[in-house]
Amino acid sequence: MISEQTNVHSSEVTDPILSIQNASVTYDDGESYVLNDVSLDIGRNEIVGVVGESGSGKSMFAETILDAIPDPGILEGRVVYRPDGGTEIDVLEQSDEGLRSMRWEQISMVFQGAMSSFNPTMSIGDHFHDTLDAHDADRTAGMERARELLSDLYLDPERVLASYPHELSGGMQQRALIALSLVLEPDILVMDEPTAALDLLMQQSILILLKELREKYDLTMVFITHDLPLVAALADRLAVMYAFDIVEVGPAEEIVDDAAHPYTRALLNSTPSLNAPLEEMRPIEGQSPAPINVPDGCSYHPRCPLATSECVRNDPAFETPSPNHAAACFHWEEAREEIALNYEDLLEHPSERPGGEDR
Ligand SMILES: Nc1ncnc2c1ncn2[C@@H]1O[C@H](COP(=O)(O)OP(=O)(O)OP(=O)(O)O)[C@@H](O)[C@H]1O
Hints:
Blueprint (H helix, E strand, L loop, with lengths): L15 E12 L4 E12 L3 E5 L6 H8 L8 E8 L7 E2 L5 H10 L1 E5 L2 H4 L6 H11 L4 H14 L4 H6 L7 H12 L6 E5 L7 H18 L2 E6 L2 H5 L4 E6 L2 E7 H7 L3 H8 L39 H5 L5 E4 L2 E3 L4 H7 L21
Parallel strand pairs: 3-8, 3-9, 6-7, 7-8
Antiparallel strand pairs: 1-2, 1-4, 4-5, 9-10, 10-12, 11-12
Helix pairs in contact: 4-5
Bound molecules: adenosine-5'-triphosphate.
Adenosine-5'-triphosphate binds next to helix 1.
């Protein structure tokens, strides 16, 4: 087991509720890394957005938090959970029983596609009953909380509890799933692409509701998505993943205004925006590496316009563009000067993105 943090960056958190330390996930007897020595602290009551292209390891990161890596993946490293006023819990050292009670009661997860999370033959109310019963929670108090949560999410509690999943729209299902994930009063909500199947207006209203829930229930949230501008409007901090590792982390506003890693700048420039002329929209050239084929040195170097022989040879350590902002790039200063950002106002006007109305 790895106990020392070797890949630390300076995006520091004063009161971390969760520390992921040197987490690695391998398949094929260690041949392919799908998470490579990732460390991140999550602050109490913070919303952290984890972003990156498809296949960059975001889901592996989410699953690491609850020791839920699909078999036969091997997870190494440490995940420390610090309940408010309680003793530290080493998540990866928990027994199956310990993990079972921790999931939902302390750390809850919501995945993309509510339809596949709900049992189609059970009403939404039965899902709440089952969850409360499985954790020996008081049904009366639990259902009272369920009704309150459903109202917080602008759903009619009685109607939704009596409905079967297919009787609800996609947006209603996803909100009901968020309510279900919060019914046992967890401290932390981890969401993996929770709004990806929804139209942009519904995505945005769910994000506003999540912010309200964070305030009301003192929640900490980890929101995983490929959609950087979407989560930038919600998150306090962003962590950007490339090729199974975090390459940049910092305050959301700072990352959107002036990202320091060439990959993050490319990701921002590849975002559709009505404000930017079409010819300025640049998809990121090349392909992100497969797990068995991660380049030596900086893994982004084959796609990076600023790469030098140093980037081919050496893995860059984290640099600190500002005290709470870290980027693993030898050339972050040049990146800021030479890779112009071509979008505007994404934080203020996310609905102006193409597809915002009718996706
Ligand atoms: N069960 C598995 N066995 C082996 N490799 C896997 C398994 N699940 C995922 N992977 C690989 O792990 C890598 C990271 O996958 P992950 O799902 O974490 O990416 P992601 O960033 O969440 O992508 P997406 O947005 O497409 O879900 C991918 O290359 C994927 O092919």
